[in-house]
Every structure is written in C-alpha cells, then in structure tokens.
Amino acid sequence: MTSDKDRVREFARRYAEAWCSGDPTRVAAHYVPGGVIAINGGARTEITKAARSFMDAFPDIQVFMDDVIVKEETVEFHWTLTGTNTGPGGTGRPVRISGFEAWTLGDDGRVIEATGSYDSNEYARQLQQGAAATS
Length: 135
Description:
Blueprint: H1 4-20, H2 24-28, E1 31-39, E2 44-46, H3 47-57, E3 62-70, E4 75-84, E5 94-105, E6 111-118, H4 120-129
Parallel strand pairs: 1-6
Antiparallel strand pairs: 1-2, 3-4, 4-5, 5-6
C-alpha cells in the first residue's frame, strides 16, 4: 500500500514533468479548476497564466524536483528551474534558479493554491549576466 507521502512525491514528480512539457495546461491539471499561485509575495495568479509566462520566457524550460516536504497543513515542493531566456524580449542568457512552492492540497490531491518563492535578485542578475558555470 502506498503511503500519502509516496503519493504526494509521485504527484510532485509528475508536476515537474508537466513544467518541462511546454504546455501550461499540463501544469494546471495539477490544480483544482481556477487554482492560483502567488509568487514572491505578488498577486495571486491563475496557474495557467503563471506557467505560460515562464514557458514563454524560457522555451527550453526544465524544472527539477529537488525535494518534497510534507507538513501538517501544506506540502513544500522544492525545485530548480533551468532555461535560456530566449522568449519575446529575452536576454538570451541562461538561468538556473532554485526555489519552492508551498501547496495547499484539496481532498482530491490537487493544488488549491500555492505560494512560490525564489531569490528574485539572483534571478534578475542571471537574466542580465547568465547563470554561473557549475563544475
């Protein structure tokens, strides 16, 4: 029998895959209809719109699941995003940024709402200068 933590981890793995698909509706399928995300304290945004904005900015977007932490009221999905900012008005620079989303899950296991967080100063720097090379 699969535990709740195993189900949540599998859900998060599929969610990361959806981000890599280039199809924002695949990301949205992990949310209840009308599900929203607020990123770095910004306004709540419908998830399809938020996903589309990142996918447009980074046509080669890859999202990797770094960790999943199941808490009493929320689930934290820790991720790393990589991509090259070649979308409309893009800088052509590669970006590698990590962050997390705190999810409130519904009874059906889908996300009702999420808050996302990443280092916006480092993100802005990478958009202009590129991600640091890793060894």
